[in-house]
Design goal:
Fructose-1,6-Bisphosphatase, Chain A, domain 1, D-Maltodextrin-Binding Protein, domain 2, 2 domains, nine-stranded mixed sheet, six-stranded mixed sheet
Length: 341
């Protein structure tokens, strides 16, 4: 299924980038098949490592040269595609920036509960912002209708009022995603005091952002501090769909703050989506343990099936595909690949 948000004549750069849509989907699909074998087994590092190696192997076949601008894993001391790593076969002169989290919500996968995804984003070479040693950033994410209504310097009550007005609904009908972290206790309490419905997952701000920007998403706004890799990937999806995003580095420890200062990074600067990704971009995610966004792998007549969402400028595709030659090993209890819930 594809939904075109607008008609336009593709630029040369966009035309080249769109040839990589299948590669983005293949990369997240391979990582999902590798990591789902560890669902419910309590070993997040093994699941993350399997996803990372499967994705790295798939990206070795990418035409041109891709550079990992930001990879997940550093803040969690997990296996990762590292910052600055080059992938691809070098067969063309195409240069691509990559933001990646081979397994988003590793704890969910290890626990065998819904919400784990494999994710990647591609952008034109030289257009993706690097947060340097920054691991965390404050974010506001909304869909196209409210893109002019957000300001990271606004207090939560003003943000809620502005977004509600832009969407033409009372604040009491807004649904906001905020990660359930100690740093957000006051924010969640304040939002609920305003009558707002707050969804507070323990992890997964990429999925939360997608819920806010997709036409069929079940949220209106994502708020709060999350990881920088997730922020950059989110910006790629937001830019493609014409949504709104504001971000700012938000170091959580003294070591991170010092590293940012030593690197000359501005922690006061508010970034717009175009500051985070300045060129055309695509995003892909494949379900690992199921959930509201995409199903996890499931068996259909002896074939392993996967569901992937690919977001490119002006369109959203949901791809259900059989993995030929893949033997199905069902996840342990709790990691259901059934219908999204």
């Amino acid at each position: 299924m594809s939904t075109y948000l607008e008609s336009f004549a593709p630029s040369h750069a966009l035309t080249k980038l769109r040839t990589l849509e299948p590669m983005a989907a293949d990369a997240t699909r391979a990582a999902a098949i590798a990591s789902v074998q560890f669902a419910g087994r309590g070993d997040d590092k093994a699941a993350d490592g399997a996803a990372t190696e499967a994705m790295r192997a798939m990206l070795s076949h990418m035409p041109g040269t891709g550079t990992v601008v930001i990879g997940e894993g550093e803040k969690d001391e997990a296996p990762m595609l590292f910052n600055g790593e080059e992938v691809g076969d070098g067969s063309t002169e195409m240069a691509i920036d990559i933001a990646v989290d081979p397994l988003e919500c590793t704890d969910f996968c290890a626990a065998g509960v819904p919400g784990a995804l494999t994710t990647i984003a591609f952008a034109e070479g030289g257009t993706m912002w690097s947060p340097g040693p920054g691991l965390y950033m404050d974010k506001l994410v909304v869909g196209p209708e409210a893109r002019e209504a957000i300001d990271l310097d606004d207090p939560p009550d003003r943000t809620v009022a502005n977004v509600a007005e832009a969407l033409g609904k009372p604040a009491e009908e807004l649904r906001v995603v905020v990660l359930d972290k100690p740093r957000h206790e006051g924010l969640i309490e304040q939002l609920r005091g305003l009558g707002v419905a707050v969804a507070a997952p323990s992890d997964g701000d990429v999925a939360g952002a997608l819920a806010a920007i997709l036409a069929d998403g079940d949220a209106d706004l994502l708020m709060g501090v999350g990881g920088t890799p997730e922020g950059v990937m989110t910006a790629c999806a937001v830019r493609a769909l014409g949504g709104g995003m504001k971000g700012r580095l938000a170091p959580q420890k003294e070591e991170e703050e010092k590293a940012l200062a030593d690197a000359g990074m501005d922690t006061e600067r508010v970034l717009d989506v175009d500051d985070i990704v300045g060129g055309e971009a695509i995003f892909s995610a494949t379900g690992v343990t199921g959930g509201a966004l995409v199903r996890g792998p499931w068996d259909s007549d002896g074939q392993t099936m996967t569901e992937t969402i690919v977001i490119a400028p002006g369109k959203v595709q949901r791809i259900v595909e059989a993995i030929v030659g893949q033997e199905w090993s069902p996840p342990s209890s709790g990691a259901s690949g059934g219908s999204p819930s």
